[in-house]
Predict the structure of Biotin-acetyl-carboxylase ligase.
Amino acid sequence: MQAPGHLELHWELDSTSSELQRQGQQLPDLAFVLAETQSAGRGRRGRRWLSPPGLNLYLSCYKRFERGVAALGGLPLAVGVMLVEALQGLGVTDIGLKWPNDIISPQGKLAGILVELSGESQGPCSAVIGIGVNLRLTPAMRETLDQTAADLHALLPADRLLDRNHCAAAIIGALCQGLRRFEDDGYALFHAAYTQHDRLQGSRLQIHRPNGSRLEGIGAGTDAQGALQLATDAGLERIDSAEVSVRPG
């Protein structure tokens, strides 16, 4: 496993991503922060990420890039590939990717990714990559969720014990290796693997935009920059804003 540049473990934080953002430029490349619980964990579009103590996995990674924010459009999708392949290496089966940032199974959402970028459009920049993985959801926790959810405890084979430290190490190792590859080659290196894991391709979808408008069509994969492609009656639509909501059609 490739080693991270820095590793911190906290009992409680408001958010592992916020902690990395507070430390900012003083951090070495590929710095990781993990927490046993978060008081203000967050997901895409400002949603709260439920973070009870000791049950799930909450971590964030700080990565520097020299190519600029404009070159990082497919980063959340590439991280999704890294995460799926790390979990498959632990014996998890029947999982895939939902554009732009969810790992899902037939039972529901298993993990989420939030990538926050800062820096120059064409120059040095950095990414804080937040990841939450459901390891064990209690019935009480499921009642508070606004969507169906899966956990690793139910997805792993019966003879495989769930070890949070092993899971965290596998994900950190996959990110250390994968992010260095992304830095060199970008999303193009991960496009084929994303297509293999894409659970939206061929499915009827509804795209709900922040302004209230809606598109309907069939998922047609992603393009070379990581944008979602939707086959509609009017032709192929390109969706490149993560602020939309993607729902079954």
Observations:
- The CA atoms of residues 58 and 132 lie 5 Å apart.
- The two ends are 41 Å apart (CA to CA).
